[in-house]
Amino acid sequence: MFSLARNFDDPIPDSCKNFEAAANELPEPARLDNIVYADHVVAAVLEPTQTRSGRRKPVRVAGLALEIQTYDDKRKYYTWLSYAAGVRRLFECRGWTMVFAPDPGVRRRAQNMFLKEPRASPWFVDPSMLPPITQWQLALADIPLAVLTSVFQARSEHAVPCACATLEALAKSDLDFDERRIYHDLVLASLKQEQLDRIPQEIRDIDEADPLGPMELTGAYYVRGHREGRDAGLEEGVQKGREEGLQEGVQKGVQKGLQLKARQVLQRVLRRRGLELDDLRQQQIERCTDLTLLEHWLDQALTARTLAEVFDPPSPG
Fold first, then answer.
1. Rounded CA separation 163/52 (Å)
2. Model confidence over 9-30: pLDDT tens digits?
3. Rounded CA separation 80/74 (Å)
4. Which residue of 23, 63, 151, 250 shows the fewest CB atoms closer than 10 Å?
5. Which helix (H) or strand (E) holds 234?
6. What is the pLDDT of residue 113?
7. What integer pLDDT is reported at residue 30 of this predicted model?
């Protein structure tokens, strides 16, 4: 990540070889009792130095709050600034927010929020910083970089070669199954259906019965779930169309499929985050047919600490 940061600045000396990750809870400097949540937080750490008292302690020289943005969110106009300030407060060193927005439209609209004040803008990673990796041997040498490159090249002519090289490298890697599956899903989630159709079946098969992984909870699974819900809805819609008329049946089937998938994803995310549903909340989800509301609950569930933060409307004012 800090190698990408050098596209914007030179925050770390070459002598710095160690890095540390921290929880994504960041103190808001103006109100230390208030916590803001980035997706990931990492700091660069120098080798331990000798203090006057004889103790050795690591010296942090730069910090990053990493954000994965898969949809438009106007609140980021101010929260990204809070993340950068929170990193500085947490590590007591220079800090920035780096944004990974693979979708070109989402990235462009986010950048446009800071056009008139570029100094306040976070750092936006773009595909030019991630040259295509189209050979599995190169992908195997640095799988996290290959996965990230595949995601950002997903709208370029290199999308399918990058994805194939990365998926083949994952199949040959010695990563444990859960980590390999998370990377696998992330690559596939970034592609359109026509691109998926060009990838050999033997390297794109995944086991849908496996539990959600942490990276899926930050957005990629949300995107993939919508694609699956759309496909399920279309299938059901075609069947209904034979009985009720094709056009009306497809529309109803799509809507019902999306609602069903949104409910399933919401419940799985809540379970993974340790937020157990009582009977009342379970019924509230099952009876909800408002897709917009289900999506809102799912967005809240990604960071909420209590069920009330997911389902209860914010207090006025």
1. 52
2. 665 677 777 788 887 778 776 6
3. 11
4. 23
5. helix 220-244
6. 94
7. 63
- Say if CB 157 and CB 192 are below 8 A apart: no
Q: Do 223 and 194 meet the contact criterion of CB atoms below 8 Å apart?
A: no
What distance in Å separates the CA atoms of residue 280 and residue 216, rounded to the nearest whole number? Answer: 27
Mean pLDDT on 25-53: 73
CA dihedral 223, 121, 114, 215 (to 10 degrees): 10
Average pLDDT over residues 261-282: 85
Alpha carbons 233 and 229: distance in angstroms, whole number? 6
Q: Which class for 167: exposed (0-12), middle (13-18), buried (19 or more C-beta within 10 A)?
A: buried
DSSP 67-132: EE--S--TTHHHHHHHHHHHHHHHHTS-EEEEEE--SHHHHHHHHHTTTT-GGG--EEE-GGGS--
CB 166 within 8 A of CB 146: yes
3-state secondary structure of 191: coil
Structure tokens at 282: 């379970």
What are the tokens at 254?
Answer: 């799509």
How large is the C-alpha radius of gyration of the chain? Answer: 22
Contacts of residues 52-60 at CB distance under 8 Å and 24 or more positions apart, as own/partner, are 58/18, 58/20, 60/20, 60/91, 60/92, 60/93
For residue range 144-195, what is the model confidence (pLDDT) as tens digits?
A: 899 989 989 988 899 999 999 999 999 888 888 778 888 888 888 788 888 8
What is the spatial distance between Cα 8 and Cα 21, in angstroms, rounded to a whole number?
Answer: 21
pTM for this prediction: 0.57
Q: What is the pLDDT of residues 227-264, one digit of tens each?
A: 455 455 555 554 555 455 444 544 565 567 677 878 88
Q: What are the Cα distances from residue 90, in Å, to 21, 29, 179, 306?
A: 12, 9, 28, 24
How is residue 183 written in tokens? 């990377």
The identity of residue 206, as a single letter, is I
Structure tokens at 140: 């195997």
